[in-house]
Design brief:
Blueprint: E1 29-36, E2 41-47, E3 56-61, E4 67-71, E5 83-86, E6 91-97, E7 106-111, E8 116-120, E9 132-135, E10 138-146, E11 155-161, E12 164-166, E13 185-191, E14 200-205, E15 212-218, E16 224-231, E17 239-243, E18 252-256, E19 261-265, E20 277-280, E21 284-291, E22 300-306, E23 311-315, E24 327-330, E25 336-342, E26 351-356, E27 361-367, E28 371-377, E29 382-383, E30 388-396, E31 407-412, E32 415-421, E33 426-431, E34 437-445, E35 454-455, E36 459-464
Parallel strand pairs: 29-36
Antiparallel strand pairs: 1-27, 2-3, 3-4, 4-5, 6-7, 7-8, 8-9, 10-11, 11-12, 13-14, 14-15, 15-16, 17-18, 18-19, 19-20, 21-22, 22-23, 23-24, 25-26, 26-27, 28-30, 30-33, 31-32, 31-34, 34-35, 34-36
Length: 465
Amino acid sequence: MLSLGRLIRVIPLATAILGTAALAHAVGFKAVGTLAVDPAPRSVALADLNGDGKLDLVVASYDSNQTVSVFLGNGDGTFQPQVRYAGGSGPYGLAAADVNLDGIVDLLVANYNDDTISVLLGNGDGTFQPQAVFPTGDGPIGIVVADFNGDGLPDVATASLGAAVLLGNGDGSFQPPTFPTTEAADSVAVGDFNRDGKSDLAFGYGVGARAKVQILLGDGDGSFTTGATYQLDVATPYSIAVRDLNHDGKVDLAVTTFELAVGVLLGHGDGTFRRVKFYSTPQSAYAVAIDDFNRDGNLDLAVAIYGKMGDASVFYGNGDGTFPPSSDYKTKGDYADAIAAGDLNGDGSPDLVVANQTLYTVSVLLNTGGTRLQTMSSLNPSKAGQSVTFTTTVRQSVPGTGVPTGTINFLDGNTSLGTAPLNSGVAMLTTSGLSQGTHNIVASYSGDTNFNPNTAKPLVQVVNP
């Protein structure tokens, strides 16, 4: 059994679907509340569990009396009351994925004390069937889902004593584990590191000067070839996240190590990575999530800070794989050991949830750069050649963040009709050039120093002869 000193991080599971943004300058998060959860929360995940287009929250708490908790989202950054589902002993790691291929999100929980994973198949309405249990290596604390043998069926890998791979049967059940490495893993992430179309794994191992990231390259049949090892020379790597951080089409790694920094390893695209570069955090970095928080088209890092006051440190990416010093946001929590990103209130800007280990809460931090856009037409339907005025209103989505300024680019499909400035949050454009037919009028907001770029839902303008 692994030491309980190996605390869990979150495997990032949910990201907002964002449009491409040209420029953005806004930065900021506001802690709007906390949710009481079961003792010792260790992982959080965001996913749409009931198909309503709103992100829901899942929490694994180590001392939860063998349950996993689900909070259905209201779509405004708040959540419905906690519902518990029976699981294994010592739930740590979480994954949300459709493992029985029915189009519904399921839950997978790594159970530290049982040396198992629990699979809870989703019913599609935010509820779940009783767990099915499958063995792993000793003390699993992290879990990822991917197709490791090329059969189109979801498989599982766990960070455990003897990192385990469980091939899936496509019905939510899994075959007995194999062990591509016998070392005790503290974190796991998945990606195609050498661009061969096969899923590879990155495991975090070791303590202090022995800390490292080990790459395992997938052979495409469920087996792995040992790749390069990257020394971190600092404390235990508790979290690994995978994305392309520098726009070169090659995936990179972000690693937290429980030291006062987060590390970035830029990928070469052949399964190898550059030497780690560290970026300082105010206190111990525990977990990391990746998203474009200011919608400038560059990916950013959000780090859960394991400190008495509780912080989320955000590194806003330069787009080349480098990062300026962090911006730090209070969470109304403490000793943050898990973090996940996603658009909780439907304003197009990713928000954060952060687990607080000793307060037994999850903090909700809304992105203060978010806006809500609404476009209206002065005449709909209109006639060909008739003058029509489109009015777009841009409002703050988080109270107390000010009035948006900047410009609106009005588009007819992909064709610009013109740009208009915002005046008290309102922009207007008049045109008489619309031809007969149906037009999708899209208002694209530029963003300003306080608010992120955003795009309104298309307005369908009908033009009659």
